[in-house]
Amino acid sequence: MSSPIPSGFTLRHTLRGHLKAINRIAWSPDKRILASSSSGNTIRLWDTQTGQHLRTLKGHSFSVNSISWSSNGRVLASGSDDETVRCWDARTGRHLASLTGQADVLCVAWSPDGKILASSSYDKTVRLWNAKNWRLITTLTGHSGRVLSVAWSPWH
What we know:
The chain has 156 residues and is mostly beta strands. The protein has a single domain (22-140), classed as Methylamine Dehydrogenase, Chain H (7 Propeller), CATH 2.130.10. It is built from no helices and 12 strands. It has strands at 22-27, 33-38, 42-47, 53-58, 64-69, 75-80, 84-89, 95-100, 105-110, 116-121, 126-130, 136-140. The strands form 3 sheets. Strands 1-2-3-4 form a 4-stranded antiparallel beta sheet, with no helix packed on it. It has a 4-stranded antiparallel beta sheet with strand order 5-6-7-8, with no helix packed on it. It has a 4-stranded antiparallel beta sheet with strand order 9-10-11-12, with no helix packed on it. Strand 6 and strand 7 (84-89) form a beta hairpin.
């Protein structure tokens, strides 16, 4: 069953391929690629002009809850219930790094300058990771419950 398209909108593509629920979508900075993460443990990349499936990123062993593009569009980060943040080369799909030590990762977000990756978790923490060497910078504690989302301010 399809839903009606609101006035003023035009359906460009219907993207199919995930076998389980889609948890998040994220546009690349240049708007040419759409990434979608799913409960099927995968991330799919789509060409926004043609609607064509470009590649599937595999490596997580549980649901992929969140995805975020670096500001230059070269790296895609993903957070999963498998207790990892994974970083991927967006052009090739190659796995670059696995960041561990946090419980189920609920959200990931890049700093505006692309130098720091933040991840939030079921374990009530926010972790900040150095994007040059993938090492932990610090762990922010003090939340009384799981941290569902994390975002950066665009102002300096």
